[in-house]
Amino acid sequence: MLMVSLFLVFITAACIIFIVIFKWIFQYWHRKKLPFLKPQIPFGNYPNFFKSKENLGMETAQLYAQMKKKGWKHGGIYILTFPIYMFVHLDYLKNVVEDDGHFCDRLLVGNPKVEPLHAHLMNLKGTQWRYMRTKLSPGFTSGKTKMMFDIIKQCQDCLVKKVENLGCVEVEELCKNFTTDVIGSCAFGLDCKSMENEISPFKIYTRRALPTTTLISRLKLTFFSNFPRFGSFLNIRTIDKDVHDFFMNLVHEVIEYREKNGDSRNDFIQSLIEIKKSGSLTVEDIAAQTFVFFLAGLETSALLMAWTLYELAKNLEIQEGLRDEICEVLEKFDGRICYQSLQEMKYFDQVMNETMRKFPPVPFVNRVCTKDYKIPEEDTIIEKGTAVVIPILGIHRDADYYPDPEKFDPGRFSEENKKKMPSCAYIPFGKGPRSCIGMRLGLLQAKVGLCGLVRNFRFTLNEKTPDVMRLNPGSLFSSPEGGIWLDVEKCL
Length: 492
Hints:
Layout: H1 2-25, H2 28-31, H3 56-69, E1 74-79, E2 82-87, H4 90-97, H5 126-136, H6 142-147, H7 149-164, E3 168-170, H8 171-188, H9 201-209, H10 215-226, H11 228-233, H12 241-261, H13 268-277, H14 283-314, H15 316-331, H16 339-343, H17 346-358, E4 365-368, E5 373-374, E6 381-382, E7 387-390, H18 392-396, H19 415-420, H20 439-456, E8 457-461, E9 485-490
Parallel strand pairs: 2-7
Antiparallel strand pairs: 1-2, 3-9, 4-7, 5-6, 8-9
Helix pairs in contact: 7-8, 7-20, 8-14, 9-12, 12-14, 14-15, 14-17, 14-20
Subcellular location: Endoplasmic reticulum membrane; Microsome membrane
Organism: Zophobas morio
Keywords: Endoplasmic reticulum, Heme, Iron, Membrane, Metal-binding, Microsome, Monooxygenase, Oxidoreductase, Transmembrane, Transmembrane helix
C-alpha cells in the first residue's frame, strides 16, 4: 500500500513539474512582449499530431486568420514547445522577406551528412547558400528556360494523346505523370514514359521521395527543424535508403555517360556538369540540386495544372473564354504551340495566377532569424535562431486583399488590378532572395501542358468530385484530398 501511495505521489509530482515547465515555456512570447495565440499542452497551437485531419498549410492559414481577426500586425505561436513568429501585416512581411541580412536561412529539413541529397539549395544556409544560388542562377534565366521548350512540348504531345482515350480522368495524377516526364527529361535527360508505364521504377521512386506530413514525418520535420545537430548525430533518415541510392546512382550514371561519350543536351543537369568542369561542384552537389529541382518542379507544377482544370470545370464560361484566346492566338502561328505564342496569351496568365492565389502549391514557407532583429517602431526583438513562418495560403485568401476570396476570378490579375495589389499580397513563389529559382520553368511547363489540354478537350466535374474540396492532410503541398475527377470530351 505504501509503495502504491509513493508511486501516486511520484506520478502527481512529475505531472505538476511537467505542466509547470510547459507553462513557463509557453510564456516565451509574453516575455518578448509579443501578442500570441494561447497554446495547448503539449502540442502548442497545432492540433494533436496523432489525430490531425487537416492539411498543415490550412492549419497555418487558420492561425493567421485568428491573428488577423484580433487586429494584430504579427504574433507568436508554438509547435510543440518551439516558438514560431508569424507575420500578419504585409509591411512586416515585406521587411523580412526582402531583408537578406536577418532572414536569409530556412529551417533544415533532413540530414545532409547521412543523406547527401539533402544538401540542396533549399537546405543550404549562409555563405553556402549564396555560393550555390550564384552558381545555379544562370541555369534558370529566361533564355535557358526557352531552350527547354522543345522537351516540354514533346511531353505535351504524349499528354494529349493519353487523354484522347479517356472519358473520365483523375487530373492530379495525370498532371504528375506529365511533370514527371518533363522534369525527368529536363533534369536527368531521361525518357520516363510515365504516361505509358504505371510501374516504371523512376515513377515509383519519385512518388516515394515526395515529402508527406504523416505522424512520423511531422515528428522528424519538427525534430530536425529544432535540433539539426542532434538529428545528424543520431543519423536519422528522412528518405528511405533505397530511394536515396536510386537517385544518387542515377546522377552518377548520367554524368559518367555524358562525360565519357561527349554527349550534351539543353537540360538542367548539363548546366551543372559544365559548372563541375571548373571544379566548383562535386557529383554529390549535382545530385542534391537535381533532386530538389525534380521534386519541387514535379509537385508544384502538377498541382497548378490540376487545380486550374478543376476551376475551369466549375466555371465553364472561363474555360470557354480561355479556349477562345488559345485558338485565336494559335491561329496567328499556324496552329503551332510555341514559346512565343504562349507569351501572347495574357488571359491564360490571369487564370493561372488566380489558381495560385486560391491554391498556392506551397501553402506556407519558413525562415530562420540569423541575427537578432528589432521589429521596426516596436520594442520587440526576434532572437537569433527563432523560426519564422510565412502563411501564404492565409494571405492569398484574406478578404481584405481579395474580396470574396473563395470565388475564382481571373480578373483580379488584369494589368490594371495588379497595379493596385499591395506588395507581398501575392507570393506563390515566395519573395526576396529566397524566392523560387525555378519559377519560370515551373510556369512554362504548366502552361504548355494546360494549353494542349484546354485547346483539345472540354472538362466538366465528375460525380466523384465533391462540391467542396479539402486539402490532403498527408501532404505538405496544397494537394486535393481524394483527387480531382473530371469528365473529358473532345472539342470539335
